[in-house]
Specification:
By secondary structure, this protein is mainly alpha-helical. It contains nine helices and six strands. The strands form three sheets. It has a two-stranded antiparallel sheet with strand order 1-2. The protein has a two-stranded antiparallel ribbon with strand order 3-4. It has a two-stranded antiparallel sheet with strand order 5-6. A hairpin with a 4-residue loop joins strand 3 and strand 4. Helix 3 crosses helix 4. It is extended, with a radius of gyration of 45 Å. The relative contact order is 0.09. The N terminus is likely disordered.
Length: 247
Amino acid sequence: MKIAITFLAGLTLAEGFTQPSLPRTGLAPKMSEEEAVAEAPVEEEVAAPEPVAAVAEPVELFGKAPFIGGELFLGETEWNKFTTEYGSAETGTFLRAAEIKHGRSAMLATVGFALQKLGVTFDKISPHEYLSVSQGIKFADLAAMGPIAAVKAVPVEGIAQVFAVIAAIEIYELTHRDGEIKEGESVPPGLQAGGLTGYNLNYNPLKIEITDRRKLVELQNGRAAMFAISAWVAAETIPGSVPLPFL
């Protein structure tokens, strides 16, 4: 009997030192906010896609050189840079106007150079003997010279007259459009894209239809003239620099 009582007393003391169990409610123990944040899965940051730069459409070039049944476009990379990266389509119009004017100047120079070389000079067709009476310069004197030397022999007054006529035409086209002076415009007509090409003069006494083909022919002839006059001047001033005979 004493043994049974002692055994029961020992069990009672053992239960007293045992941690009471929590009631099972089916719910996990509540975590603190810090622990929840620490154990939350870390989402990887996705970098935003870089903006794609808009690609400008290439500007069509008028006046491509015909070549073996197709077209040859020399300087296409530079043209695209000037008209898309560095400028716009209007930049291309300015470049085209500059080429047209240089081509026209070269065509005039080529004709004058060739006529001088062929002996078709003013002393044979002009009723006047003297180019400058005050300075005693005769047309025959210029005819005996080469083209470059003849230009250098023209008096300063003669050169000034040539530039005065050119300036009058340029100023007219600079300020006029369709035969009328334009006032109140921030940019004069001649300085706008495509200006100073002669088209604003509206001078066409022969009523010739200005087609794209005629413009292309003028452009191609101007390009050929620029090459020709450059070679002729080089050959005239530096003998042997161009290994081709003149005419």
